[in-house]
Amino acid sequence: MTILNKLSMRSILQRTAFSSRPKRSPQHHQLLSTSAATATNSNPDFPSYLLATPTTEITQFSSGLRVASESILGSNTATVGVWIDAGSRYETPHNNGAAHFLEHMAFKGTQRRTQYQLEIEIENMGGHLNAYTSREQTVYFAKVFEKDVPRAMDILADILLHSRCDPLAISRERDVILREMKEVNKQNEELVLDHLHGTAFQGSGLGRTILGPEANICNLTRDDLKEYIDTHYLAPSMVIAGAGAVDHGMLCELADHYFGGLKSELDEDQKKSDAVCLDKGKFVGSDVRIQFKSDNMAHMALAYEGSSWTSEYAYPLMLLQTLMGSYDRAAGKNPTSQLMYDVAANELANSISTFNTCYKDTGLFGLYAIAEREKVGDLMTCVTNNLAQLANTVTEEDVERAKIALKATMLMGLDGNTNVCEDIGRQLLTYGRRMTPAEIFMRIEELTVEDVKAAAQMVFHDKDHAMAAVGGIEGLPSYEW
Asked: Catalytic: which of 70, 103, 136, 305?
């Protein structure tokens, strides 16, 4: 497949400005940019709304810290945040749950602000401060008025780098996280997908949960949390992102002031520490089944190894996910996919959806379904039969329809400053750059039926699968079936 080779020639469509800054001398840098006129001349068929998208400016300090922003004309508010290349997959069995625990502790007070002072300061600005942890990233961000961007950066740096991690507060927060775990486990989809990762990537960091095991939540100490900060909050692992009413030069000055002291690499002792986990995600064909005889519904996830973010199959699989679609009995039938039509016509499931999860070096592509217990066997027969034929049944019409739907999904995902800021931070961590909507559209548009068929063949043909199922699943066929 030559998808990436073809697309490399389209790099002129990447309207992104770059600069490089020394660690402590932000006034010396050079800005390089690609003009909109050049992009327009290279492909006059692009809609004007694609070519009119704002430029993403990117600055990299000598320490490796990156600052990226997109100023949106007419915006009076801004979203600024810190995207960290660290999540639960980089934890060890000993400290699994540390990143999520730190997310809780960040809002419990710093060396300069008590929890009450932090809450009042954000409230008085009319701002919003939030954070989340995933398997590969940790994110802290703030939504504020334009004039409050400097204060937001001050607060973000304070909670990230100067959290008190008071032992008493840590003890109190254990109960909060344990209650959160109970609530998460009541959500069948969250529970099933955690079990799916646990079996598909067993023995590796991707197989661990974000919250961590109960034993770790009860035993993680202040030293464990501080060690996690020291080993993962490094300058090259961080992206300072902003969108909306943001001036890039000012954001760089603020980043240099508040984050300029971050170290660039671990020392030799830290590299050997058991707090650092850099294992590869190795897919293992397997399943996990948790049967509740009293439950009349079955919740199931069937997955195959997918692609990484940078794989040549990444965009074909995004298109394949869109093409396969979803079905929800409450919303009506979805005729865009033969699989979903068969499920709907025979009333085999209450709902079924396709998922495509990418990581740095691997991924999961599959289906999540909710069905009545007596229909589980028929549903799985229908699913496996359709997947076996998928590589041979995809048509040009299917692909063109999926392209339109995928483009619309991509654009709608960029509505609002926060979504744009999220896209900037995530793309810089995963791709090392920001792809414009024009480039994304070009990547989608150049996909062919053969590309999608090749992706389906790569994922499904004679490949092991992973499955997690919870509830009334006695009708679920054996793994060997």
From this structure: 103
Confirm whether 374 is a catalytic residue: no
Task: Please report how the helices 338-345 and 376-393 are oriented relative to each other, as an axis angle in degrees rounded to 10.
Answer: 150
Q: Is the pLDDT of residue 300 over 80?
A: yes
Q: Are 376 and 298 in contact (CB under 8 A)?
A: yes
CA–CA separation, 356 vs 362, rounded Å?
Answer: 11
**CA–CA separation, 453 and 143 (whole Å):** 42
Sign of CA dihedral 150, 152, 154, 157: negative
β-strand 238-244 against 66-71: which pairing, if any?
Answer: parallel
The pLDDT score that the predictor gives to residue 333 is 62
- The neighbour count for residue 10, using CB atoms within 10 Å, is 16
Strands (E) located in 337-429: 351-358, 363-372
459 vs 15, 18, 202, 268, 455, CA distance in Å? 33, 36, 19, 40, 6
- Cβ within 8 Å of residue 12, ≥6 positions away: 34, 38, 39, 42
Rounded Cα–Cα distance for residues 342 and 475 (Å): 19
**β-strand pairing of 66-71 with 56-61:** antiparallel
Residues 6+ apart with CB under 8 A from 163: 102, 105, 106, 108, 109, 110
pLDDT digit string, tens, across residues 20-66: 444 444 443 434 333 333 343 445 477 787 888 899 999 999 999 99
The sign one gets for the Cα dihedral 106, 112, 116, 119 is negative
Determine the residue type at 165: C
CA 122-126-130 angle, to 5 degrees, is: 50
Token duo for residue 193: 């997908």
Could you tell me if 302 and 476 are in contact, meaning their C-beta atoms sit under 8 angstroms apart? no
CA–CA dist 220, 214 (Å, integer) = 10
